[in-house]
């Protein structure tokens, strides 16, 4: 039996148009990244129907991102093993952009955003690990075990070693950025790493201190401290791409492996040291100075602006340069003024998904419960917002109206306390001690979290149509699950009864003849009439004031505008499901027809007020057995439609399901004709 990972992988391939529609496939920390021949072949709705798929994000005219969360590598590994996909795995020496090339103005912008995002995402793991090591050291500082900001020669050797553990990531960050940026562009990633590495060697550092000017090759070179910098290696990787492209045009293919990297290093290391490196540092300093000016003008205003901007920057990947500025601020100023307010955005985001988690438990919505739980844990414990962003926030229209108030409230609190960070960390519950004052920061993230969470719980995170569609899906899934369980129980009971009957017959020495089975609605050619389960006017399903029922998403049938107050069983059968609120009941009739009777539209919101459930799940009922009694006046007074859909939920098993509308029906009157398909002839 195939694993869930394999089943989901096959589902993804099928819904993106098949393996033949894919030109390339890569993945980052949370997303599968496809380049497609024809983006219009993607079935977005069906693709997102798999609970493992957290979101689908089209990019440009041929790109598609499928958000899978932390287990993306497992799905990537399964997909490339599928027929036709094995030759699409990432080829790091191809010399082509993963994006598939530039195709017009909008695609250039898309690729620029993607370039920034995909450069930093592979490094995310190392940055997250280092940030938690920093948190341990900050906790040691909080409890007086060591001074986090003291010079290394004044700290015990054990703490010096722990500082080396996190500084390794930040000091050599330019090398990592150089490698990932070059790989994204299609240049050689190891040459991309070697270029900034040259500026971190003891030989280069021995030339002088940052700010000094030395003479190299007869030219003046301004020295800079490149440790922890990201803009110089980014710009150098772009230069490397063009250098390699030009060299490959003039160097014969037979010797490119030797001479392309040789000339690339010979050209790009001096170009970076003399020109591109100082230019990159100037860009970083310019952005930092602008933010510092706003902070110097009013820390309170900056603390509100930052969390309100982040929800729009993160989907575009534009937040990564700000992360670089945070690292640079800590290196130059000794503190950073962006991370604290940024925590308000993160925790407002986590508050939204926590609210979704609460609602999904209440609604028994397994798919959203899984998505929201994953986003909540990744956020609260890891400070990672992507699962929340792509799994929930960008999928539902109203989520930003719940998110932004939390960002604002949290930002106000951060501004009041003028929160600063003294170490670069991912803003999670585990990294609170890295902020100062940590008490004010805690109040700020709590305010952001609770504001957004409560808004979701009270006002929901979906439009009415989105909510109705999800409720209908849940009811269908429950009915299907109940059907499968009842079929299993019935099969077991039949086997037991057959065994007992055989034993009795053998003991008596007689031959028993089983009674002929009753003809059911499922048998070939059978025509079965379904009678009205309540009194009222029968209307076409298309007239039911709910798009899910009217669109026959749950099966064909009719609607009834009730005049009575009791729903009864139209024939003998078993209760598959009955909602505690009384607004819906599912039956499997002995003739094989499965019915869903949904009393009113959106009446689930009445929480059972005005409904009296008269039967239990799995109870056997006969024709005319009362199932639910309801108060028609209360439904109308609450502002809900009392129209009651009566649906044949296993419609697909029949040749036709035809409703008889336009008449006033009494209980027992025929309202639906069900016709089984004819038997196939040999």
TrEMBL record:
<feature type="transmembrane region" description="Helical">
    <location>
        <begin position="190"/>
        <end position="210"/>
    </location>
</feature>
<feature type="transmembrane region" description="Helical">
    <location>
        <begin position="160"/>
        <end position="178"/>
    </location>
</feature>
<keyword id="KW-1003">Cell membrane</keyword>
<dbReference type="Pfam" id="PF02378">
    <property type="entry name" value="PTS_EIIC"/>
</dbReference>
<feature type="transmembrane region" description="Helical">
    <location>
        <begin position="301"/>
        <end position="322"/>
    </location>
</feature>
<keyword id="KW-0175">Coiled coil</keyword>
<feature type="transmembrane region" description="Helical">
    <location>
        <begin position="406"/>
        <end position="432"/>
    </location>
</feature>
<dbReference type="InterPro" id="IPR011055">
    <property type="entry name" value="Dup_hybrid_motif"/>
</dbReference>
<keyword id="KW-1133">Transmembrane helix</keyword>
<keyword id="KW-0813">Transport</keyword>
<dbReference type="Pfam" id="PF00367">
    <property type="entry name" value="PTS_EIIB"/>
</dbReference>
<dbReference type="GO" id="GO:0005886">
    <property type="term" value="C:plasma membrane"/>
</dbReference>
<feature type="transmembrane region" description="Helical">
    <location>
        <begin position="230"/>
        <end position="247"/>
    </location>
</feature>
<dbReference type="GO" id="GO:0009401">
    <property type="term" value="P:phosphoenolpyruvate-dependent sugar phosphotransferase system"/>
</dbReference>
<dbReference type="InterPro" id="IPR013013">
    <property type="entry name" value="PTS_EIIC_1"/>
</dbReference>
<feature type="domain" description="PTS EIIC type-1">
    <location>
        <begin position="114"/>
        <end position="475"/>
    </location>
</feature>
<protein>
    <submittedName>
        <fullName>PTS beta-glucoside transporter subunit EIIBCA</fullName>
    </submittedName>
</protein>
<feature type="domain" description="PTS EIIB type-1">
    <location>
        <begin position="6"/>
        <end position="89"/>
    </location>
</feature>
<dbReference type="GO" id="GO:0008982">
    <property type="term" value="F:protein-N(PI)-phosphohistidine-sugar phosphotransferase activity"/>
</dbReference>
<dbReference type="GO" id="GO:0016301">
    <property type="term" value="F:kinase activity"/>
</dbReference>
<keyword id="KW-0762">Sugar transport</keyword>
<feature type="domain" description="PTS EIIA type-1">
    <location>
        <begin position="546"/>
        <end position="650"/>
    </location>
</feature>
<dbReference type="InterPro" id="IPR001127">
    <property type="entry name" value="PTS_EIIA_1_perm"/>
</dbReference>
<feature type="transmembrane region" description="Helical">
    <location>
        <begin position="259"/>
        <end position="281"/>
    </location>
</feature>
<dbReference type="InterPro" id="IPR003352">
    <property type="entry name" value="PTS_EIIC"/>
</dbReference>
<keyword id="KW-0598">Phosphotransferase system</keyword>
<dbReference type="InterPro" id="IPR036878">
    <property type="entry name" value="Glu_permease_IIB"/>
</dbReference>
<feature type="active site" description="Phosphocysteine intermediate; for EIIB activity">
    <location>
        <position position="28"/>
    </location>
</feature>
<keyword id="KW-0418">Kinase</keyword>
<feature type="coiled-coil region">
    <location>
        <begin position="467"/>
        <end position="494"/>
    </location>
</feature>
<feature type="transmembrane region" description="Helical">
    <location>
        <begin position="438"/>
        <end position="459"/>
    </location>
</feature>
<feature type="transmembrane region" description="Helical">
    <location>
        <begin position="343"/>
        <end position="361"/>
    </location>
</feature>
<feature type="transmembrane region" description="Helical">
    <location>
        <begin position="123"/>
        <end position="140"/>
    </location>
</feature>
<keyword id="KW-0812">Transmembrane</keyword>
<dbReference type="InterPro" id="IPR018113">
    <property type="entry name" value="PTrfase_EIIB_Cys"/>
</dbReference>
<keyword id="KW-0808">Transferase</keyword>
<feature type="transmembrane region" description="Helical">
    <location>
        <begin position="373"/>
        <end position="394"/>
    </location>
</feature>
<dbReference type="Pfam" id="PF00358">
    <property type="entry name" value="PTS_EIIA_1"/>
</dbReference>
<dbReference type="InterPro" id="IPR001996">
    <property type="entry name" value="PTS_IIB_1"/>
</dbReference>
<dbReference type="InterPro" id="IPR050558">
    <property type="entry name" value="PTS_Sugar-Specific_Components"/>
</dbReference>
<keyword id="KW-0472">Membrane</keyword>
